[in-house]
Amino acid sequence: MTPEPVTALVTGLAGVAAGGFVPTLIARVPEPELGEPEEPDKGEDDTTPLDEGPPEEPKEAYAAIAARPGLAWQAAVASGVAAAAIGLVTGWDADLVVLLPLVPVGVALAVIDWRTRLLPTRLIAPAYAVTLVAVVVAFFASGADVGDLERTGLGWLAYGGGFFLLWFIYPSGLGYGDVRLAGVLGLALGWVGWAELVVAIWAGVLLGGLLGGLLSVVRRRRDYPFGPFMLLGALLGVVLGQPVLDALYG
């Protein structure tokens, strides 16, 4: 894998520009209506708190999150770094068509999930549609074969279907928002490759367990969301997936 610094520079600048609109994207997410089934992101083991803690506060409004000081530049930096890392390893490849649109959306979802422990369907559903269209565009633009589409579908089944099974077996330990997010990530990572998909899944689980466990000890509560760890794991899968599997299995 040869690094592509020129591509990284271009995609990084594009990521910075797109990241600046993350507060606007968050502000446009409608609040859950009364009685609307908005599944919480339960994270890791949040059903067994180390202490009861203060009473649960009302959900922070999306508009209030979007108006937080410094969010625009922080999101721009996060999007820029993520987009640059993707461009560095992919170069001018059709994979960019699939991956780059998910960068600002992923940052927005991470921010929302971290603040509210919710992964809004109103944001994930369009991400599904955009990813599907992007896969089709990348398929025709790259001259890929049908096997790439099959791998994409299997990636969706492995990540999204696997998380659905976990949710079905242990619904108190995993939010359905995580299941929806896993489906989107499974599509995108499945298109990119098996190494990226496998490493992304395991990276998300390990980060959720290790960093989330450390956070539980520091905060004395087990109420952290799992979505941000899934998204960070997806980025690590794209950047390090093939090198990691090459190092392990040659």
UniProtKB/TrEMBL annotation:
Residues 105-211 form the Prepilin type IV endopeptidase peptidase domain. GO terms for cellular component: plasma membrane. Residues 33-55 have a biased composition (Acidic residues). Pfam families: Peptidase_A24. The chain crosses the membrane at residues 6-27, 71-90, 96-114, 123-141, 153-170, 200-218, 225-245. Belongs to the peptidase A24 family. Keywords: Membrane, Transmembrane, Transmembrane helix. GO terms for molecular function: aspartic-type endopeptidase activity. This is Prepilin peptidase. The keyword Flavoprotein does not apply. Residues 28-58 are annotated as: Disordered. GO terms for biological process: signal peptide processing. It comes from Nocardioides anomalus. It comes from the Bacteria.
